Amino acid sequence: MSDLDSLRIWDDPRVRSALSWYLDVAENRRPAKFRIAATIATRLDLSKSSEDALWAELDRLTPIFLGRWRVIRAGASLPPAAEGPSLLEIARELAYRMLSHCNFCPWDCRVDRVTGAKLGACKLASGSRVSSHFHHTGEELFYRGTQGSGTIFFTSCNMRCAFCQNGDISTDKDNGEETDPRTLAAIAWMLRREGCHNINWVGGEVVIHLHAIVDAIALLGRDFTPTQAELKRARRTKADRFFFFDELPDAATYEGRFNAPILWNSNFFITSESMKILRLLIDVWLPDFKFGPGRCAMTLAKTPWYWDTVTRNIALIAQWGEDFSIRHLVMPNHVQCCTYPVLEWIGEHVPSALVNVMAQFRPDNFCDPASAKYRDKYAEIARHPTRMELSDSWQRARELGLNFEATTFERRHLFGMTATV
Ligand code: SF4
Prior knowledge:
By secondary structure, the chain is α/β, with parallel strands linked by helices. It has helices at 13-18, 20-26, 33-37, 51-73, 87-99, 141-144, 167-170, 181-193, 210-220, 228-235, 272-278, 296-301, 306-319, 335-349, 387-399, 405-408, 410-414; strands at residues 129-136, 149-154, 177-178, 199-202, 253-254, 257-258, 262-266, 284-287, 323-329, 354-358.
């Protein structure tokens, strides 16, 4: 057992129940889902099969995967990995097929990102860039633990939030370093062996890098060990490379093989096809749920179909019995139109979900009056939320009976303060 399991937050039965699979994988009591997917064999010749045939095979094998996941959850041991191609490689192959007519997200641009002759809304071809990676100590307590969340920040985004709190990387697709899947796998391998409790894929937005991430995870599922040259490349974007971390290989293995919970930290503006692939690989989901059902996603983020897409995807992971927690950032002047409907939807559809109703909005990106990027049309959110807006939001969450206080106020608990608002 690492020190993650000894944190007092797990004494809350609702937290433990919502994240029990994640905690078991983080503590290497269970294998990550990518290791299970590697045990499900396929006879398809992947490179010669049509995309339709690959989807049909994924659909055929997914119930087998889920059955295996269920018995492993209950304590069964992990069978040996398939000798030939497996469900893991089908996921990888499908992600690359999708890349050639990109439908990773609902923009459904249908551009061929392999040739890169035309770009879609995310402005990316096939290359992926990593801005930085490090032991993140600012995530929720159950993710950051004591050793940090092994967070990998990708550039660019498929949304255009005017207030983006990571605008430097989401609006600058050329930030950071181009990073191939082997280097990505090396980054994840290194972070986990340094004790990180999970591998946290984030941006910008991550789904626009689906092919590279699935490829990296597929390598990790096939006993990838990085070369010295790959580790050197991985260190180029390591923001905490001047800190010393003990290498703890035993903290990174299940039955002697690499193991780490995969955390999907995303805006959830994702197609059903991408979700089907991710279902096989993600151990814990961290969706951002920002906007209500009105026009705010359009006026503040130029994103159509937002509410329908994000609610569908959150309902899906709940129906699938996945581990997840939801983030909602309270925005100034958007409590009535965004915070309340978001919280009400959660109360009605996923009432036991862990929710972080976050207070840390700051005027940034196009909403920062001190920045040259500032636009007058965003004046309504060019300030911090007021105490009243925050307390109204938390009060509404409380009235709805949401499971939010342990997550939202955990730092106050840590320091022995009460969670009053
Ligand atoms: S990831 Fe989304 S925005 Fe980017 S090309 Fe694909 S469909 Fe378009």
